[in-house]
Structure formats: C-alpha cells, structure tokens
Amino acid sequence: MSTSEVSGKPDYSPVSWREYFDQMEDVNVGPADSRDVFRIYKAGSDGPLLVLLHGGGHSALSWAVFTTAIASRVNCRVLAMDLRGHGGTLVRQSDDFSTQTMSSDVANVIRSCYGETPPPLILIGHGVGGAIAVHTASNMLLPTTVGLVAIDVVEGSAMEALHIIQNFLKGRPKSFKSMDHAIEWSVKSGQIRNLESARVSMVGQIKRCEVEEADTVEQATPVTDVVVERNEEFYDQSYVNDKENAASESVYKWRIDLSKSEKYWDGWFRGTSNLFLACNLPKLLLLSGINRLDRDLTIGQMQGKFMMQVLPPCGHAVQEDRPDKVAEAVAAFLLRHKFSEARRETRSSNSFTR
C-alpha cells in the first residue's frame, strides 16, 4: 500500500505492465522492407491461448488486471495486443481501421508468434475489439479458434450510440499536464471506474510529448506539428510551468485521434449480431446491462445459441471496471467447455481478490 493510500488519498501514479504480464514484445508482420510492428503482452506458459482485443482508444493494457484474475482461476496463456493505430503498435497505414484489415492483423500476429498451428485459441474482444474478434472467427482466419467471447458489443445499441461518440470525444480533455492527472481524470470522469486498472492502462492511452514552442501547457493543446513523442516507458512526473522555461515543458496527449476513424464506425458493428450467432463455436456474451441486447441477440439467446451474463453495474470498460467478475465468467465458460482446467489452488474457492 502506498503512502498516499495510507493517508487516505488515492494514488494516481502509473504502474508498470510488468506487475501483470510476463513479457512485452514487438512483433514484426509483413515483408522485410515494409514491416508493421505490433506491440503485444504475454502471460502464462500452458493451456489454451486467450487472444485479448481491446476497445477503441484503449490498448492491450486494459486487460492487465483481468489477466492476473483469469490466470489465478484457470490454466491458460494470454496474448493481449495493441490494435493498429493504438498503444505501442506502429503500422504504415495507421488510419485503416476496416474490420477486414484489423482482423487480418490479429491473424498475422498470431501466426508470427506461433506459426501455422497455434495452440487452441479463444478470441476475447471488448467493444470494437469484440467486433474484430467476431469477424476474425466468422472468416475462419485462425483455424485453431475453439471459442469466442464478446464483451459489451451489441450491434443494435452500438449503432444507436454512434452519434454520441463524437460528442464524447469533443468533451474530454485534449491533453494533460502529467500522467498522474490523466489517471485521476479517467477515474473521476468514470471512463475507468477501477483505480488499479486505470493506473496501468492509461499509460497505453496517452503519450508524453515535448512542446518545442514557447507555449504554456494550457496553450499547447492546438499545437500538432511541433510535438514529438518520447519513448520512455515511465515518465518524469514533474514539469516546468515557467514561461521562460517553456521550451522544456511536456504535455500528455491521446495516442490516437479516434474521431478520424469515424468513417469505419458503421462497418465495425453493422451485421455483427448475425455474424456472432452464425459462428459455429461455443460463444459467450458479457454485457454491462440487459438493455444492451438487440432483437437478433435476444432471439438467439432464447434459442440457447450462446452463453450470456449481465455483469454488475459498470461502465463500458467492463473488463477494467469489474475484472474479477469478467474473469469469473470467462473461467466458467472455459471450464464448461473443457477448454481449460481450474487452477489447483482455486478449485476449493472461487473468491479471488487482488
């Protein structure tokens, strides 16, 4: 427990991915002269491979706390990847967010890591990542896929919500003066309702930039062509506010401008409910609220075509807000279909708290 937690004040300082994953890798995909590089995080050494795909604007680090929770319950391996344009991934066409391109990315990364015969895979996706998981599975891009888990991705409610996404993006801060401030904002605004998760995952959402003009941090927001990224994993939390030292100031900005992906939003979700239902795999749908269910999924659920669980009240960042509850549901799914075995130490008890 940190000093600030002892004093009763929340600790908003960032936490390393190393607390949750075993390793981080940059995976090269494509021809040698024009390779795309995808950032991945791994954990575990045996059991089925859970391929974790994050939501729009997030990164693989949004699965950090969930990874610890699921690994304590069942034997499994985890591979969480930063999608193109997100996190630490660097691709040539970073603005191509089509479902075809993004699902191909997933298949290419897995093949690069495991060859043509990967271990049994369970595709698990949240939001946009859930739609990508559905497209990857329905197009049979990874033949060893044995299960599919979609988290808070429902075509009907997603299509209805598209018009408010731009308003949300316009309403959030354009920059932060420190990583701590970004973490504090994410929790207090309700974007991430779990402080532990926010402390590790916000590092994947924003990056430190150097302001090279004589501008204050507050004025730095509209400056786009004079900002360069620093690649430190951890950032010096102090910065200078004096105008005379303005050249050395830093500001933290979003790694991806989600508003530029708007032309793909419709394609991400349209038709996903029927694609999900048509996938001839064991399936699990996790929702943050029953009101998210659309007509096709309601009928499919009544026909027993997939497992479904509505989680306790939480926001859209389901696996971050309630990582233990999501891990419990995924573990039950894996055990029911005999994809994995329960960890010995948890067979007698299902209660796990980090």
From TrEMBL:
<keyword id="KW-0719">Serine esterase</keyword>
<comment type="function">
    <text>Demethylates proteins that have been reversibly carboxymethylated. Demethylates PPP2CB (in vitro) and PPP2CA. Binding to PPP2CA displaces the manganese ion and inactivates the enzyme.</text>
</comment>
<comment type="subunit">
    <text>Binds PPP2CA and PPP2CB.</text>
</comment>
<dbReference type="InterPro" id="IPR016812">
    <property type="entry name" value="PPase_methylesterase_euk"/>
</dbReference>
<dbReference type="InterPro" id="IPR000073">
    <property type="entry name" value="AB_hydrolase_1"/>
</dbReference>
<protein>
    <recommendedName>
        <fullName>Protein phosphatase methylesterase 1</fullName>
        <ecNumber>3.1.1.-</ecNumber>
    </recommendedName>
</protein>
<dbReference type="Pfam" id="PF12697">
    <property type="entry name" value="Abhydrolase_6"/>
</dbReference>
<feature type="domain" description="AB hydrolase-1">
    <location>
        <begin position="50"/>
        <end position="329"/>
    </location>
</feature>
<comment type="similarity">
    <text>Belongs to the AB hydrolase superfamily.</text>
</comment>
<dbReference type="GO" id="GO:0051723">
    <property type="term" value="F:protein methylesterase activity"/>
</dbReference>
<keyword id="KW-0378">Hydrolase</keyword>
<dbReference type="InterPro" id="IPR029058">
    <property type="entry name" value="AB_hydrolase_fold"/>
</dbReference>
